[in-house]
Amino acid sequence: MKKPAAALFDLDGVLIDTEPAYTRIWSEIESHFPTGIENFAIKIKGSTLHGILSAYFPEKETQEKICNMLKESEKRMEYPLFDGVMDFLAELKKNNIPAAIVTSSNEAKMKQLFNARPEFAAMFKVVVTDADVTKSKPHPECYLKAAEKLGAAPEECIVFEDSFAGLSAGRDAGAHVVALATTNPRHSLADKAHVVIDSFKKLSLDTLLANF
């Protein structure tokens, strides 16, 4: 693959190591408001909060309680970056490849994250949150919108994802897709992405592009 026009990153489970925390949070929420769905916390990964509430918790009172539980949990959450993330983002910047965060998270969480890690925030030209889309992943709207905001053709972009829904969104957007084996086992990702990697640690742009 030639030099990409842009790099589009999912957030949780790709750049920041928060998926275990969210699995615990949503498992606890589901224990209070049972859905009867096996592995519920795993099934909803990649979905916006609005999408989750609409699909599984239609009662307004329940939605309010869940939002409060989630808000309180996120206040206490830490946002550890995966090893190698800052180095890889710096290499993209050095090569004049713009980067975007494309997340199902809300703007309040992004503000909290960026306030805690301003050096991380500075690496991105565009951030697409749940407020910017009408359809959750696996719909490709979020990645199409991010590419448009960066003035790049989707087929010239690289998408980095960990969830099945996100990988599907990247593929359907027409992008080159890299799967991170951080949330799901490596063998389950092979047919869902062009390239599978374990992490950004010691990953160079040239090495990655050579694998497409």
Task: Describe the protein in words.
With 212 residues, the protein is α/β, with parallel strands linked by helices. Helix content is 43%, strand content 11%. It folds into two domains: 6-17 and 79-210, 3-Layer(aba) Sandwich (Rossmann fold), CATH 3.40.50.1000; 19-75, no CATH class. The protein contains ten helices and six strands; from the N terminus they run βαααααβααβαβαββα. The protein has a six-stranded parallel sheet. The longest helix is centred in the N-terminal third of the chain and has 16 residues, at 60-75. The chain starts with 5 loop residues before the first strand and ends with a helix.
Q: What characteristics describe this protein?
A:
alpha/beta, Rossmann fold, 2 domains, six-stranded parallel β-sheet, 10 helices
